[in-house]
Amino acid sequence: MPLALLSLAVVAFGIGTTEFATMGLLPQIADGIGVSVPQAGNVVSAYALGVVVGAPVLTGIGARIPHKRLLLLLSGLFVIGNVASALAPTFGWLFAARFLAGLPHGALFGVGAVVASRLVAPERAGRAVSRMFLGLTVANIVGVPAGTALGQQFGWRYAYCAVAVIGLIALAALAAFVPHQPRGSRAGIRHELRAMGNKQVAIGLATAVVGFGGFFAVYSYLVPILTHLTGLSDSSTTLVLALYGAGMTLGTLIAGPLTDRALRPTLYGGLALLGATLVAFYFTVHSTVPALLTLVVMGAMGALVTTPVQMLLMAKAKDAPTMAAASNHSAFNLANAGGAWLGGLAISAGWGWASPALVGAALAAAGLGLAFTGGLMDRGSGNSEVITSSGTKAPTETDQVTAR
């Protein structure tokens, strides 16, 4: 079990590295393929678009494929997408390659979350899912700075080659350590889509888009905020981003046990504390030490939201949780785009570089309102359940995760 979870974490590490390292290599990419930096930034959008499209589509296509085999196929597509990125001769080819690399992102996380939850006892499912997400947060501490440094030193193509190697390592580890988990007799695209029709799944996805949009409203502009207001130099921002990643890792570590004990209170608390921390950042951003301490807490609170949202969606989708779990990562990428857009509007309106923090706090509060709405709807419908056995029978009392 630990090696299987480690294999899933390696997949998440590779995904986090390829997604965020691109942002630090835009000047090198622009020079390498002869476009402007703003135009090169469109490859980030291409990856995000691939995530949004690929999560439901690939999960639906693979609805009858056993989970382990599907993980291997998706990991292979991830490797191909990054190799194609490294070899892309023109901007058009690179745009297409980044879209291809993003396609398996959400499906890998969704299928991986379901697999992780079934590797352990039901009462430890949240911890298992959070261990997989650790790979994503560690990527922000190690993988992204290392990939950025490699690309700056030797060329951006080498960064994508390194990510492809990580993908191959993950592929081998998944093949060696993840056990076979057969699909139930009712598995299929119709079954998954029927589960997606649950109103609570829709509210959970909306909570992720709106609430986590508050996180990205600040994260998207963190470097210019720190250089313009806090007074940090450009050379120190990589270290600060790693510090931010350390906060996310801390939040992920505590999210698992808290989610297993009380799913909805953890979600409520995470969104409320995220909003409060964003308000605090608006006032601490002008002083280096308070700003950095607030950043660590902000990263922790953002990560604290991720696991309960994932587990809630799996609970509400009941015995067809894979597409709901995968669509959560489409929601996170929509949150990325929406939060960045709204934060940018505030800056463009002349409200100042600190204004995205207040925009983010408002989004976190709106997400909390949506989460509360889902909780109120739940009061008369009984406990939510997450299927942790591989069969299709309704779970017994010991197979339940209480989502209240």
UniProtKB/TrEMBL annotation:
It is a multi-pass membrane protein. The chain crosses the membrane at residues 44-63, 70-96, 102-121, 133-151, 157-180, 201-223, 235-255, 267-285, 291-313, 334-351, 357-377. The keyword Membrane applies. It comes from the Bacteria. It holds the Pfam family MFS_1. One of its GO terms (molecular function) is transmembrane transporter activity. Residues 384-404 are annotated as: Disordered. One of its GO terms (cellular component) is plasma membrane. Keywords: Cell membrane, Membrane, Transmembrane, Transmembrane helix. It is found in: Cell membrane. It comes from Streptomyces griseoruber. This is MFS transporter. The keyword Cell membrane applies. PROSITE patterns: MFS (PS50850). SUPFAM superfamilies: MFS general substrate transporter. Residues 2-379 form the Major facilitator superfamily (MFS) profile domain.
